[in-house]
Amino acid sequence: MKLHDVTVHPSDDALAREDQLAWKIAEVASERIDATDAVADMVINRIIDNAAVATASLGRAPVIAARAQATDHPYAPGGTVFGVDGRFGPEWAAWANGVAVRELDYHDTFLAAEYSHPGDNIPPILAVAQHAGRTGEELLRGIVTGYEIQIDLVKAISLHAHKIDHVAHLGPSAAAGIGTLLGLDTATIFQAIGQALHVTTATRQSRKGEISTWKAYAPAFAGKMAVEAVDRAMRGQTSPTPIYEGEDGVIAWLLDGPTAHYRVPLPERGEPRTAILDSFTKEHSAEYQAQAWIDLARKLGREHPELRDPDAIVRAVLHTSHHTHHVIGSGANDPQKYDPGASRETLDHSIPYIFTVALQDGEWHHERSYAPERAARPDTVALWRTVSTEEDPEWTRRYHSLDPAEKAFGGRVEIELRDGRRVVDEIAVADAHPLGARPFARAQYVHKFRTLADGVLAAAEVERFLDLAQRLPELDAAELAGLTVTADLSDVTAPKGLF
Question: Subunit structure, per the record (predicted)?
Fold first, then answer.
C-alpha cells in the first residue's frame, strides 16, 4: 500500500488532476487486477450474506416502499430487485436492493477512523452488471474495487467526527467499483467519483435521537447516486474539482478544515486488492459494536441466571470505547435509548437495551428481540434502566488500533448485585469475528442464508440461488441475471406515491 498525503489547496494552486485523491482512486479502479482466491471466496460469502439479510427484510415497510418505487420503473435490460420477477432501471434496482440489504442492520462491517458497511457496494455494482450484460468475473472485480476503496477511505478519513454520515465514503467507492466493472478509463471514473461524493454528503442526524426509516435508505441513496454519476460521466459530464482538496471542497468545509492533513492508503500499481479480508460480518441483527456485547450477555445469562432479575441488580456498567459509549450507549444522551416505545431503528442503536434482552433471553433474534411487546416487558424495562456505559481509554485505544490482533469492539462489564457481590467479565471481539470464538466461514454464511430464508423463499429457490452465488466467477451474463431471489409476496400491499 502507498500512503497518499491529502491536504486542502486554494484555487490559485491549480492542483493537477493527477495529484487529487479522486484521480488516485480512479487509477486504482481503472487498473485490471484479478482477485486472489481468498478474496474471490470472500466476495461470494458477502453476496450470500447480503441476500440473506435482504430476504429476511422483504416484508418490512421500508423495503416494501423502496421495492414499489423500483417496480414502477421497469426497464429492459435493467437490473433485478429482491423478491420479484422482472427487470428495472439499474439505479432503481440499486435503490430497492440497497434498502433491503441495509434494513435489518445485519450485514458486514468495517470500523476504523470511520464506520462502514462495505457490503452496501454490492447492490449498485450488481444492478449495473445485470443491466450491462456483464459476467460474474467482471462483477467480482467491481465488487473487489468497491470494498477496497471504501475500506481505504474509512481507514484514513473520519466523517462522524464532523457529524457527516458514513455513506459519504460509499458514493465514491460504488462509483469506482462500477467503473472497474465496466472497464472505464481513469478520466471517466475520476469524474464519476467527484459527482458521487458531491451529492452523498449528509449529516448524521439520521442516526441520532429517534432514528427513522431513512437509516436504511441512506446507503441505498448513495448507491443510486453512484449509478447516476457514472452514467453522466460516461456522457462526458464533469464534476466539481478538486472535490476533496478544494478550498470550498468537502475537507475544507465538512471535515477537518483548511489545515487538514490525511494520509490515505491505496494499493500500489499491480498490488492485489485485499481490503475485503479486513471486514467482518454480523451474527446478530444489531449495530456492529453490539455484537460482542450480545455474545457476552448470553454467556453471563447462562453462567449467572440471577442476573436476569432486575430486583437482584443495583447497576451494570459497560466500560467500552468512545464510539460505543457516545453513539449507541448512554453517552449519546438520547432518552430514546431507554424508551420501550422507541422504533426498531432506535433500539438497534441502544446497547443498554440490547445487552438487557440478550442477557435475559440468551439469544438475539432479528424480529423477536425487537418486538414492541418484548421491549415493553416490565422486568426488561426495570433491568434495562440499570445498564449504562462509560468510556474506557484502553478500549478506545484498542478500537482504533491498526493491529488486527489487538483491535477490539467490546469491553468490560461490571455488575453490582444487591447481595453485595460483583460480577466482572469482558470480551474483545464477537464470536463470529475472524479472531472470535466461532469465526464465520462459508458454512456459516450459507447457514445464515438458509435460516433467514426459511418461510420466505421456496426450498428450490434457496438452492438455486446458493448454486449460482457459489459459481460466481464462472457465470455468464444470462446466469448473472438470476443472481437474485423471488418470493411469494401476494399478501404484501405496497404504498402508493407519485409514480
Answer: Monomer.
